Amino acid sequence: xSILIITEHDxxxxxxxxxxxxxxxxxxxxxIDLLVAGENCQxxxxxxxxxxxxxxVIVADNAAYAHQLAENLxxxxxxxxxxxxxxxxxxxxxxxNALPRVAALLGVNQLSDVIGIEAADTFKRPIYAGNAIATxxxxxxxxxxxxxxxxxxxxxxxxxxxxxxxxxxxxxHADVSFVDEMLAKSDRPELTAASVVVSGGRGMGNGxxxxxxxxxxxxLGAAVGASRAAxxxxxxxxxxxxxxxxxxxxxxxxxxxxxxxxxxHLAGMKDSKVIVAINKDxxxxxxxxxxxxxxxxxxxxxxxxxxxx
Amino acid sequence: MKVLVAVKRVIDYNVKVRVKSDRxxxxxxxxxxxxxxxxxxxxxxxxxxxxxxxAEEVVVVSIGSKACQEQxxxxxxxxxxxxxxxxxxxxxxxxxxxxxxxxxxxxESADLILLGKQAIDSDNNQTGQMLAALMDxxxxxFASELVIEGETLKVTREIDGGLQTLSLKLPAVVTTDxxxxxPRYASLPNIMKAKKKPLDVKTPEELGAQLAGGVELVxxxxxxxxxxxxxxGSVEELVDxxxxxxxxxx
Lengths: 309, 250
Ligand SMILES: Cc1cc2nc3c(=O)[nH]c(=O)nc-3n(C[C@H](O)[C@H](O)[C@H](O)COP(=O)(O)OP(=O)(O)OC[C@H]3O[C@@H](n4cnc5c(N)ncnc54)[C@H](O)[C@@H]3O)c2cc1C
Ligand SMILES: Nc1ncnc2c1ncn2[C@@H]1O[C@H](COP(=O)(O)O)[C@@H](O)[C@H]1O
Prior knowledge:
The structure holds 2 protein chains of 2 kinds.
Chain A (H helix, E strand, L loop, with lengths): L1 E5 L10 H12 L2 E8 L3 H8 L6 E6 L8 H11 L5 E5 L2 H14 L3 E5 L1 E4 L2 E6 L4 E7 L4 E5 L15 E4 L9 E8 L12 E5 L9 H11 L2 E4 L1 H5 L20 E5 L5 H4 L7 E6 L12 E4 L2 H11 L1
Parallel strand pairs in A: 1-2, 1-4, 2-3, 3-10, 4-9, 5-9, 12-13, 12-14, 14-15, 15-16
Antiparallel strand pairs in A: 6-7, 7-8
Helix pairs in contact in A: 3-4, 5-8
Chain B lengths: L1 E5 L2 E3 L6 E2 L6 E2 L5 E3 L1 H15 L5 E8 L4 H10 L3 E6 L6 H15 L3 E5 L10 H9 L3 E11 L2 E8 L2 E8 L2 E5 L11 H7 L4 E4 L1 H4 L7 E7 L8 E3 L2 H10 L6
Parallel strand pairs in B: 1-6, 1-8, 6-7, 7-13, 8-12, 9-12
Antiparallel strand pairs in B: 2-5, 3-4, 9-10, 10-11
């Protein structure tokens, strides 16, 4: 068996989630190759080659892959697919965007958001917003799957010395082009990789009040997240949404502030190790999953929390 | 421009699903069903395009047993012109759905195909992408804004790091995210009118679509339950617990 992992990177370095996928691949068993497709991505390729347990790194360095456009990336992966028993991508927006195209072109179904490896052909994945966990068995010749990074430990980023192989194939779909991108800039850790996450909901009242959470986050080295209601109300940008249809997080500590705990929100954070809820409504469903619940007004509790940390 | 919208009948998003005691699947008996929220957003967007004069016709399609006609009628009441039910088992696999949709899109010569980004039952998030690949057409998933400029489509997408804008030549496939629009409520007169709008029934065989399969559902289990926690009386107590009991804060 051999496994191809589509890495996520910013051309210079690998995104941490790639390391979680290497662990998932090790649990499947077999040789592990990484694909780095990008533009001027030699740095990321070298980082990939240093990951422990990797056999080979395939680098496709071309403007066609600069923005990971699904049309181009999927054709590249299909071209490289021969001989692989499994093709993995992270369950990020990039992976979710491109990998189903790979599956369709290979004539197989994709297994989405895998959280457990039972056997080389049998996997666990959440359905119904995580209210049920399905065990699925694939009879397809190649298993194409997105993997939820938080469900697997990170492999060692160093210690490997894989061969780097260049792939010169260029796939450029004529009918799609990148226009621009507005990426949130933050000095805080990335939501899905942070060990502490502080999230605010509609109870925050407005965007300025998120400053209260930022201060707590700064003390804890935490990322800041939000409920959908907070995003929809325009308090904070969409990339902060945690939940079934936002980001899946599983930090050591999750602090939910002014969030009621709808099932769609719980789907994105209930695998956190320790959950704290601060809410003025003692009946709020968030308390059913919280290890430590504080009933009270967040505008008093959060500043006090900050001063005591 | 003709817009095709794929809609799925799913469990209502407010209902917490339970696993059957024999763990063969989830229990959908007597559970409230609804139009998948993302599909509702897709229908709304199509209807707005029509209202803005950018689209001439909005066709909705659902693949499933007869029960999904209920959701097709809902879409018609929201403003779609015509509906197609492709009669097939519920919970068909995504590749089969995408192959059927490809045939329908070809038959209809659809210029724009709108789907939800995700069905909230399977949480697959793949059908739109598969359809685009089968048709070798461009795609914009997780759309939060859509602007038609002649033969091209400018779409803003919600991605992990923020927002991305792509330009696509029609025909194209777009999957909707939550913030694309806020769907309207169907008015009573429109619900009545929808009953008279055309609804065709087809089969995958008639369409010449080949079904896929390949993935077997072995079992379903409830997620690990969290231990019930405690309520703390003060912020001071909370910080003490986090430091000395949970040991997650230095
Ligand atoms: C298809 C679909 C997908 C969805 N996906 C997601 C998703 O990915 N993520 C997500 O989060 N939601 C999602 N939702 C929305 C979800 O159903 C809820 O509407 C949302 O999570 C509610 O956000 P909230 O808890 O911030 O707001 P509310 O439910 O309004 O709760 C606000 C809470 O703040 C408390 N509060 C108010 N003021 C104070 C105060 N001064 N001090 C302390 N507490 C206070 C209130 O008691 C209340 O409990 C989705 C919905 C649908 C239909
Ligand atoms: N059986 C179906 N009938 C019609 N459309 C579907 C069906 N299944 C999925 N879709 C469409 O594909 C989208 C994504 O579904 P999924 O890939 O299953 O998460 C849905 O929001 C629908 O627009």
